[in-house]
Amino acid sequence: MPMIDQSAGKTGGAPEGVRPRDRLALLTADNAAVPLPAGVQAITAILLAGLLIALPWLGLGYRFLSIAITTLYTAIGLYGLGLQFGQAGIMSVGHAALMGVGAYASAILSVQLGLGFWTSLPFAMALSAIVGGVIGLPTLRVGGQHYIIITFCFCALFVIVLTNGGTFTGSATGLDVGSVTPLPGINFDKLSNNYYLVLAALFLALAATYLIGISRYGRTLRAIRENEQLARSVGINVDLHKLGVLMVSGLFAGLAGVLQLYYLRHISPTLFGAFPSLYLALMVMLGGARYLYGPLIGAIIVNFLPEVLNLEPVDARIAYGICLLLVILLLPGGVGAGIKNIYLAIRGGLETQGGGSNGRA
Amino acid sequence: MFRPSPSLQVRHPDLIMDIFVQQLVNSLSVASVTILIGIGITLIFGLAGIVNFAHGEFLMVGGMATWFMVGTGMNFFVALVLAGLLVGALGFAAERCLFRFTLNRPMNGFIMSIGLSVILQHAVIRVFNEFQKSITDPVGLVWTIGGVDIIAMRAIVVAITAVIVAITYFGISRSRYGMALRASVSDRDTAELMGIPVRRYVTGVFIYGSLLAGIGGALMISLFPITPFTGSVIIIRGFAVSLIGGLGNVGGAVVGGLVLGLVDGLSAGYGYPEWTDAYSLVVMILILVLRPQGLLGGTLGPKAS
Question: Which residues contact B127 (CB under 8 A, 6 or more apart)?
Fold first, then answer.
């Protein structure tokens, strides 16, 4: 990963007389650390929130809303992955298994003890966080690809354990649960209400990601990502921070898993195996892990692409693969980076015309 | 996926030793395929510095190509060579079009190889279908040596693997190409200054590893039926083998493959077959955590960025 902060100040605006090739470089540059003006951030957030809240009222149909729910709970899991990869630089290709821990914990609590959605949620999230931390222990010893392979092994092991777990885990057929316990006046059997439940959780995840990003904690994580040795030498407890971010990521995954469980009402091991995990990694890379809306963009693209292009599942997966290759080769920071860079380039162009009167935030 | 062959049924309940020997030969042939994929991964990961997650898919494509060619009436051994060459060409294309651009960002190369693996898997489903494919035993002989039945094809698989291992081992450790290759791993810049075309070596290693995957796929389909999803199972075993032995260490991959193959084969015969796949995963996690450089030592792979 390139160092980002030195070049941050000058990549925003295109200097006069740049060649087209340099303009392309401006688009692929990593400007995740360039702060946007507070006004722009607020407008984006309000527009996005408004759109998401208004979605069930747009009359787009049952199928559309179902895909939207899938997209949103996936995005919640992705915000955890985005946090650990984008901020701390720890990639995982076993993240679906972590969602599975939450989902199965909740389902088993429901089947064995009769706990409902709201009561099992905290336990499931806590368990996911703990498991996330335990799988994270090897990161203290090995980094990079070795850790990725460990997460992949964990994911494969998790599926084997679930499949051989007898009636406790429901074996290959999986487990069923009832519907979300209704709140006074709100019945979650109605699809739009289920949508709002997932949306509220997404807003929580977004807010948490934003707050971590601007906090001292987030800065420390980024310092570890850029140079672990240096971070250690200035007295940062690297191990604790790494485990911490993995546990936060596990919390998000647990939340996403429980939401998934209560939306589908039925879970089976294949939902949390290698393929779903790889798709999570794909989505987070596609959207851009370092950008606030990156994971959401990735989830939207991957979930809606087959629908928009009207693809068969097999073709859709081939299309995912090709998208991923193109993004890595052409836009290593993800689609989020592309959007932000286009914005920065336009603003830079306007500034040059207006004599640079707009002060940069 | 690795089940004992039907010939291994107990015919003389008292001849436990015979059954053990049969299981051993059985396990060795299973280990052979694992060793071939492990060597490919250990070379590509340890020497070329590329983590190719699509390597298992390369093997699967090799197996599917063999199935297709044998289906058209071709001799199995001709098909084996052609499958090797085909997958070698596939590796060449992948290296030139994809991995070349991520050599200094191994993490991106890794993610890209996941994309490639998804594409290959589903391209095969698209071209054929998702059901398992098998070919009839191309030799169809059973040798009886000292009361032990040995399926000839299994012995041939072991022999072919042994030859490939020998060629690879001496190629890396004795030939000047192998020496140049090891030089470029230990210090890329200096090797380049000494006039070693490092990039070409990376490509060469990638092609060779892919070729081995193609041959491994052909051998595998002569032993077991394979499906388009075989690749994603075998890749984990390949990583396990290469990491157990130490990256870039051909001898280590052989040891790793033997250990894993024997554990698998014997556990399928004696232990709990439904947990067979779990053993290799547990072994690998333990090795990665306790001895990241592998049992026999090797490079630590490309620097994580």
Answer: none
